Structures are given as C-alpha cells and as structure tokens.
Amino acid sequence: MQVKHEAQYQASPARVCEVLLSEELAQKRAAALGVTDYFFERKESGSLIQTVTRVSMPASVLPEQSRRMLSNGLEVTVESSSRSGAAAETIDLAVQVKGAPVSAAATITLAESSGAIANTDALINVSFQVRVPFLGAAIEKKAAEQIPSILANDAALVNSLL
User: Fold this and answer.
1) How many CB atoms lie within 10 A of CB 127?
2) Which of 26, 7, 142, 4 is nearest to 78 (CA)?
3) DSSP class of 162
4) CA 57 distance to own-chain centroid
5) Distance between CA 59 and CA 69 in Å, rounded?
6) pTM of the model
7) Across the strands, what pairs with 85?
8) For residue 43, is pLDDT > 80?
9) Residues facing residue 39 across a β-bridge
10) Which CATH architecture is the domain 2-161 placed in?
C-alpha cells in the first residue's frame, strides 16, 4: 500500500535532514514509544549520510490488540541514507520488522518553502506491505489510516529539535 503525506518543518532543508538523521531524534522516538533498548549508528562519506536504528519493542509497549499476535515483541531496524540534489534533500528509508509479517520503505523529499522564512516542505512517500493470508489487505487499510497521524506527531517531534 502507498501513502503520501506532506509535512512542514521550521528550518532549512539541510538542517531538517541533519535532525532527521540524528541520534537525538532516534532517542526521542524511542522514548515516545516507551522503549529504552535501541541501537544507533551513523556513517558519513562526503555528502552521503547513512544511519541504522534498531529498536527492540517488548509486547508490553505494543497496542493491546497487537499483543496477542506479537507476544514475543518486535525488533525494528530502520536503515536510512541521504542524497543532496540541486533543489532538494532526499532521505530513503528501509524498514525491516523482525517478529511481524511487515515490510516498509519511505522516501522523504525536503525542499525549501517558497515563503520568506527559511522553512522546509516535506513530501513523505510510504510504501508498506502486510503479509497475512486473507487479512493483509484489511490490516494495510487500517494501518494506512493511522500513518498521517503518526507522521504529524513525528513532524512535531522533529520541529521540537530544530
């Protein structure tokens, strides 16, 4: 399933990219999930920045309706890489979920807003698949309804660090 979302950030695209790929944001995201067990690694090579964030989520922090199906919890790994272009910064994300039949990827394109203040407009394209026989499409539809709210909350978290 594909979901597109727009967000606004209160800084330049380069600064937003820096925060999106920061350990400080990874810490805040983990704390927002109620998780203390996480791993973060950042590598830089010229203008390319790559990060890996791995979060272990015990079943106790998952929504109640998910706990029965995911009684062993989840291990989520997010690998990201940035690309700088003439008009925009782009971040590609690949999400691997151990413990659930889910795969996801996203691309975040950051471009300077046309207004007078140095702000950034973001276009976030999310692609995900739930591989559960007979129920996968229904679960995807339900999850797709939640993504805009999740991304809006995340944008607020990012803006708090800018």
Assistant:
1) 13
2) 26
3) -
4) 16
5) 9
6) 0.90
7) none
8) yes
9) 54
10) 2-Layer Sandwich (3.30)
